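Bug #77: duplicate submission created two jobs. Keeping one. Sequence:
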Amino acid sequence: MKTNHIKIAVGLWLAGTAFVSCSDDFLNREPLTTLTPENYFVSEENALVAVNGIYNGVRAMNSAREYTIDYDCMTDNMYNYSRYQHTQEIGQGSHSASSYYPQAKWTKDYQGIARANLVLAYLDNCYTDATKDSPLKERLRGEAYFLRAFFYSDLIDFFGDVPLITEPKDVSYKGPRVSRDIVLDTILNDFDSAIERLPVAYDEENIGRATKGAAMAAKGKVLLYNHRYAEAADVLKKVIDLKDESGAKRYDLYPHYRELFLPQYENNCEVVFDIQYIKGRFSDGLSHQLYTFVVEWNSYCPLAQLAEAYYTTNGLAPEKDPTWDPAQPFLNRDPRLEYSIMVPRSLTGRPASNGSPAVFIPSSGNHTSLKIRKWNDYEEREKNNSEQNIPLIRYADVLLMYAEAAVMSGTYDEVEVRAAIDAVRQRPDVMMPKVEEVEGTGLSPDKLIEIIRHERRVEFPFEGTRISDIRRWRIGEEVMTDAIGYDPTKGKLNPPVYEKVVVDKRVFNPNRDYLWPIPQKEIDANPAIGPANQNPGYTAN
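Kept job's structure:
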């Protein structure tokens, strides 16, 4: 049920509203009809709309592509041959300070931060002495803290040191870059403030808002991504153990992997935090185009590197499994391969014109002979109107992040770590062998980390996690090599022939590409960030 979208949509007007300067002198010269924080934040209803406006900033800037397929096209998971989607140059290492994605991400995140700062600064103005103890007041404050921390977590992940702004500022304000560690301290404090104020769960009308568990999981994630492993393990374990008001376990793995990415099964027990969408509201930014790009377009092409990463059903890499047949390479593989990727001659899920089950036959536009299955029911035919929610944190992520943080901390229980990995592997419709059945016990920390990294690769394709995993594991120069596909002319054959071809030349500069450049527009407009303060390896345009 998505009744919360009605309220969030009301807040969309705020997304395009710029409050005037907070300077008293400037305000005194404005007409009385001008919208200012002082004359807007006067009621709890307006406060709610303002918070809804912050959530609008979480929605992907590219119609749900940002957190899903576009990020993956910048990695060894996918390739997109269309320059129009702005991913190719980052994958090729040809991006610059003027590239679309760095500019768009920087702008979007700071817009969200500005909205959160307004709410945090003026929320009390919405209440009188008689209403100051409203339960909604502190919940809204908690949501604003959560969202500000969310945006700053994104910024330090992609850019490193960034300006730290925690109060409403004049639109002309430009601040210097601040150490990533200092920004991280603010993020952690904000998440703690959110955890203190947010509920464990909501009624149906408010599903999609930040919860206590979402704030805890996001805190654990940013700690892990910044190599504070013991702290990350501690807070992520609290998410695993979290109970609702009835005493029941708050989160669990949903039994059917494929259904996680179909709208009729969303808001399930595995979702920790997601972006909510609703059908028929594309003009409002409440529907998205993921169906169009995944189903109708051929330019989004999974790579052979990803398809071949899935183990056989015996839990072995194909080349180590004596039962594996190179002529039929995708038989008897981890079921998540079939749930995520269509290979030549696999069923599409959409009936053919004669009513028989349709099979996927690569066209010349399928440069890799592979196509995305995840995110859409192929029986759907309505373009540009997708309603599938986009999970940003799933419980599977919590389990694998916990396992990784525990091992990296140096103090862990191997049985507990293996149990977290096994839980993800043994989702009822996946049922891959347990770690101990394949690798035994008494595993080294390096071996456990190898297993966890593999599990993340095959659990989260097309969910936008790979780009940050590559960054924090410092494996860019290892994996960002030539993008490999299968010749589509050979993939058309029956049976298909899997002849590998290079579809894109990739270049990864380890002295530059672990961070994105500070946008050129910011450098030009901000005297506190000049060319000398650009991230290493990027030159002025």
